[in-house]
Write a structure and sequence with these properties.
Oligomer: heterodimer
Largest sheet of chain B: 5 strands, antiparallel
Strand content of chain B: over 45%
Helix content of chain A: under 10%
Helix content of chain B: under 10%
Structural class of chain A: mainly beta
Largest interface: A-B, 54 and 47 residues
Radius of gyration of chain B: 23 Å
Structural class of chain B: mainly beta
Number of strands of chain B: 11
Number of helices of chain A: 2
Amino acid sequence: MAWSAPMTFVGNTVLSAANLNTYLRDNLSQLAPAKATTANRIFVSTGTNAIAERAYSTSQVSATQTRSATGYGDLATAGPSVTVTTGTQALVGFSCFIFNSSSADLSNVSFAVSGATTISPGDDGIMHMEILGSQSERVGVIEYVTGLTAGSNTFTLKYSVGSGFAPVGTGSYGERHIWVIGL
Amino acid sequence: MVWVAPATFVANTALTAAQLNTFIRDNLLETEAAKATTAGRLFWTTSRNAIAERPLSESFVSTTETTASTSFVDLGTSGPSVTLFTGRYALVAISAAIRNGSETSLAHINYYVSGATEQSHQEQSELKLGGNAAGTTHPSRSMTVSWCTNLNPGVNTFTLQYKVSADDGVFFYRRLTVIAL
């Protein structure tokens, strides 16, 4: 059942079961307490007079591993990766410590989306970190992702070096963390 | 109308239209389902027994541009800029790929607020990255996420600007994300 704009009750008119079912039972069923299923979730609007419970998920890979390729890909231990049910949007945050074998080269981190939606890492509009140099730095970003296909979407960190510049060195990445809030 | 604490109904007393309108109609109209208008928005409390739907918005400018200004200015392509309805607070994330022609100089980005609120660049929200090692042209890319307070509720515009401590700063992949609270 869907939300119905509550009627205005009028004195000296019959209050019917149909009225109570439509404006009380069915409307209450559209509210957050009726839709809450699991602790630690949030509610988002999904359209006019419609809300949904949304989950968040986090994942971390602590292993420090390297990559020397200029195209985004996995490390020896892929990920981290999270799968959540989203609408057409999500908030994605990721961080890691990162450095390059050369003080003059870039190490990059981005994320890919798979499942209901396919988005390649580093695509225009998709946030990525580009960190220059051989000092170990820990940085993080948040991305507001739109244009998702509603449903089960998987977000996976990916890694590369360089950015059209050469040489590219060897990037090292550790304490890799990702979180996603479905919207 | 506003939320009214629901009455405790008593047996053998008349149930009036006024009660139904106050405790059912009007209270239902204060719920998140009644206030939901657009997909992907969040609900926040605005005061006791009151909530509001709040938007998120993001703007991205990919153009690579430069400045040698030591005070915050627009680049040739201004922005990015985001306009949305906020309460008194917002969560603001700013990022860019940045490089500076000198190893010892910094390049800065920060935002200001206009519209319902006039608020200049706040130090706690600034992103600044160091210059390049001599002989390199690689940028660095990072982000700050800050809590923007003391906003006047209403339509507020957040605009990203740029400066350097010295020399020429180059800025690209410029992004601004605002979560209205």
